[in-house]
Design goal:
Layout lengths: L1 H10 L10 H7 L2 E6 L2 E7 H6 L4 H8 L44 E2 L2 E4 L2 E3 L9 E2 L12 E3 L9
Parallel strand pairs: 3-7
Antiparallel strand pairs: 1-2, 2-5, 4-5, 6-7
Length: 155
Amino acid sequence: MGTLRQAQQALGAAVILIGHDMGLMAQFADRIGVMYAGKLVEIASVWDIFAKPQHPYTQLLIACLPSLEAKEVFKGIPGRTPSLLNPPTGCGFHPRCPQAMEHCSKLVPALREFKTGQMVSCHIYDETPSFDDSAPPNGNGDLNIVGSSNAAPQN
């Protein structure tokens, strides 16, 4: 990674890393895009991803990271990863999501700005879900939806 960083700095180039090693990403990247089932679910600075993740998958992913301070039992994310050949309808994470609502299984959430520099694709931040007719279907016949970008979850 040191050689890659030197080349990046010498050329003034951007580097895109794709991987599962969140520790490596934290050391090398400035911004991280978190994907689930082939779709971006959150984009933010490294600080925001690790300190204030917004998408339920990102939250669970960060919670699974081992701690250097305490010995703990390995935690995984409950449920099975979806088939990419036959993905679930609606939000791809809804079958495993502890915060899933009924419309999560029917509507694909749009990736939208949650706050400056942080984007998230999740219905828990929608005030009122509505169809986005300008967005193409996700391949399953589901339409993307739009809603308020800064709404807090409502109980």
